[in-house]
From TrEMBL:
Biased composition (Acidic residues): 452-462
Transmembrane parts of this sequence: none
Organism from which the protein derives: Volvox carteri f. nagariensis
Domain of life: Eukaryota
Residue segments, region Disordered: 281-322, 418-480
Pro residues: compositionally biased ranges: 425-443
Name listed for the protein in its UniProt record: HAT C-terminal dimerisation domain-containing protein
PANTHER family from the UniProt entry: DUF4371 DOMAIN-CONTAINING PROTEIN, RAS-ASSOCIATING DOMAIN-CONTAINING PROTEIN
InterPro entries: RNaseH-like_sf
Amino acid sequence: MTQIGDEALMALFGAAYTAVATGMPFTHYEKLCELLVFANAPNITTKYDDPRALGRFTACIHDYYQGEQTKRLKNATFIGIQMDESTCIAGESHAAICVIYDEPSTGTIFEEYFGLVKLSGWTGRDLYDACSGEFRRRGVDLEKKLASFSGDGCSAVASEKKGVFGFFRKEVNSACYGVHCASHRLALCVKDAGTKRSSPKMLRDAVAAVDTVIRAAHKVFSKSPERWLNYLAVREVIGALTPARTLKVFNATRWSGRFKCIEDLLSQLPEFLSFLCPASTTPPPPPRPAAAPTPPPLRPATALPPPPRPAVPQPAGQPPAVPAGILSSPELAEYYEALLHASPAVRVILLQQLGSQESVDAILKGLSTMFQIACAGLGVPDNVRVQIVNRQPLQESLKAQVSIIDLNIRRTLSQLAQAQQATLPQPPPPPPPPPPPAAPPPMYSSAYATADDSDSDYDPSDTESVVSSECDDDGVDVDPSCGGKPADEAAKFASLHEKLTDFTTLAFTHFLADVLGTTDAMFKLMQASEFKFSDVPGCVEGTKNALHACYVAVEPGEYLTLALSAFFAEMKATGFGSYKGHAIHNVPAHPEAEVHKLVSKYAANLIRHVNERFPDTRFISALALFDPLEYPDVDQPSLVKWGIEKLNVIHEYFTSRSEAKVHTHECHPVISFGQAKAELVGFLVSMQGMKEEASKAHAAYVQYFAEERAVLSQLLDDASLGYEAAHEVAQKVSRNRARPQHHLDVVIQKLWGLRRNVPQLYRLALFVAMIKPTTVNCERVFSMCTVLKTELHTRHSVTSLDQSLFIKLNTSGSVMKEHEALAKAVIAYHSGTKIHLYQSIAAQVENINRDPRVSHMLVH
């Protein structure tokens, strides 16, 4: 390994740090080095611009940062652990470990990523060995430091007998406080309220009906791009204003994902129903006025099936009559017949051609009645008719489908020509020739020879794995009269349309959108990295109050939430007869009362499950002793009495843990509660004096959190388009002010200054501060894994992925701020020899050439 100058190494380390901290693909590292050469960085050459050098530099930077964290952990008073497990798409299971600890020299609380460990098993012992082994590998003794362990609540983690939490209590510290992640608990409450066996059957049936329509709606487009293009065409015809969103499917165990699925479906439900209806219902055409003369039929009634009636809202009144002689124009007759019998995408093309082709333009201007008839036959609303003539060509998504559409136009017009020819007197047909021997299976006629182009290279023998009930068949434009698949597809679409227009299912879908939106807001609040134990009671109480006020303590039909209020406003306007122009069915005699029965039962059941999964335990309530915001506004004697009650409850917890006899050594931490009671009066006075400052810190944190969420929502809002809007949002995102601290972190720093006056209560306050109520930091690790493992990256090993995660999650991301740390990493790099680098750093990236099997092949 050649030696290069410190300035050049700093530049290369800065490029490596930038690539990892910003989540760049490793292949971009070479471009960063080229930029350094272009910028005349001192002594830069192209010798170190390959990913192998990036791996060595990253390993060296990671070793420095990890060493600094290990030093802080060894000096910490207490440590709290959060752990979660996830299995990637490749089948590999990893445990993400995060820590919260204090720095005794400053009183600062750190919440950091600790490591990513590959799992060899999924039992409680396997998970415990993986987690504790990582701390032992880094020389961190947990015996006298472990204060809390937070997990997801599964038996392998939460069980006190054979779970990770139980092993930590038995083998490390019996005073360790176990936490079932609050976000996971709230998700389980939402799930149990509608699916648990103890829930009322009416709730379980309603939730199952909504789940069925969501899954069926997802399957409509999941394996058929052609249906998606036709759906976009229908949206183009009716002038949809909401953006088209891909319908999603949820995981049965992830109830937080249901909100996004229902939200996407409801936002475009009118257009989706309009897409389903032409293929699912076939009522007779609307009757024409008897006084108006009608043209003679252009074909026998049995030549084609009755035209499907579109699902878009019909204009008021009957369509205008056809004046005599208008359909005598062969060109217009062909267009009108094609409009009646074409698929939705073909109708858009024909209607545009009817209003834009120069060959028809002159005739169209003098025959406006004909154009109204065509629009009425399609069910185009009045406000859209004027726009269709001047509408721009189809969007880019339909351009790939132009050839298929043209074939369908020719197919339809060829049918019409054959039908018209059949109405004329024909000479007797010649006798058919005898069929040739060993004739092949009959083929479609020339009109359909290329129409089924979605199946032209499709082997029916390959369809055994396709489930017929999933609406996954292609070939939407195949004529059902030929026995093709669309006949079955039409039945599936009709069934889905019927389920979606069922009154109870439709109302409960709107209700779930509202109630899941309420709980989703709580999920977002819990996902704040600074979420502390003191935030849980208020968050839970706020959720219960919102549920009761919105769905229980209201009159039937008088809901204030967004989706339900809009739904009942339309129901009242239409007399509970239609939804967005589509007739609804199974409407009960008292619809508002029946829906309110479902809504109130679900909300009450959800509140009951929240009370069960978030019990107001005496120990958690006693932790209010260390939160100034929980202090009552009373005189000092009453305050002292209140404080003694809280301290006694905490004393009972530590006493019970010491008497449990499940540990193999002395219970830590050792707290002298006699001395703590002597310190209590001064501690209470000091904490009450911090109440105003803590209140201001809490308000600043909540305001910052709300503004941050508002900015993120604006970034994700589809309506926030254009350069000016994007520039405005960018200005908000680039705020220079630092993120405010949580008020409990401010309190701990204040208590650090008083630690000599109240040493025992300060230790207790630190112990309580390590109790992390959620595992959201672990969830953030897995989300970052997905970002790092994109298709532009090479596949990361566990070691290299762990190094990238550590740098990205635990550092500022700024080369200027990390200049001092990078300089120390360069010194460590200089101190190593070539063999040292390969053995202690490069080997950590698990180079495949070091695999014994590969080495064996190389030797031989």
